[in-house]
């Protein structure tokens, strides 16, 4: 629609209409919302206090915004499977790292591994960096030096995050 062309980084809900012949249901339309929209709508019931938090990560001259969500105990099941860090471009997922990332010795968030979700917005990185980081299939990350550097930077950021330290101790 025209609004999304003017403001491409704004996540607008999409309405889906059922047109199959012979379909019977309670409604012939539904609204499709992305992960961040669904999490923001249900924040009070599902997200820990003082979250989400956000910041900017700069790796090899590439700026990426990130948001850290921490779900209340057992609430993650409604939003994620095995994704721990989601790499997005203009709100669409282009790759992910599993929750096992949080169990790394350099991160030390094993007690929160099931509950933490980081969304890393790669919309502002250069075209060359995108080509190196993402596979053409848009569902995996390639093995490249940039990915390794991003992982190291995320390890440091998460390990030193005061809110995560407090929550980790509380859960332990």
What does this structure look like?
With 172 residues, this protein is α+β, with helices and mostly antiparallel strands. The protein is built from six helices and seven strands. The chain has helices at 2-6, 35-41, 43-46, 127-133, 145-159, 162-171; strands at 14-17, 29-32, 53-59, 62-70, 83-89, 92-98, 116-121. The strands form two sheets. Strands 3-4-7-5-6 form a five-stranded mixed β-sheet, with helices on one face. Strand 5 and strand 6 form a beta hairpin. Mean pLDDT is 81; it is low at 1-8.
For the residues shown, what is the average pLDDT?
A: 81
Strand content: 25-35%
Structural class: alpha+beta
Rg computed from alpha carbons, rounded to a whole number of angstroms: 18 Å
| Largest β-sheet summary | 5 strands, mixed
Query: Biggest sheet, strands in spatial order?
Result: 3-4-7-5-6
* Number of continuous helical runs: 6
Oligomer: single chain
The low-confidence runs, each spanning 5 or more residues with pLDDT under 50, are 1-8
Q: What's the total count of β strands?
A: 7
Shape: globular
> Helix content range of the residues, please?
25-40%
Distance between termini? 48 Å
Order of helices and strands: HEEHHEEEEEHHH
Summary keywords:
two-stranded antiparallel sheet, 172 residues, alpha+beta
Fold blueprint:
Elements: H1 2-6, E1 14-17, E2 29-32, H2 35-41, H3 43-46, E3 53-59, E4 62-70, E5 83-89, E6 92-98, E7 116-121, H4 127-133, H5 145-159, H6 162-171
Parallel strand pairs: 5-7
Antiparallel strand pairs: 1-2, 3-4, 4-7, 5-6
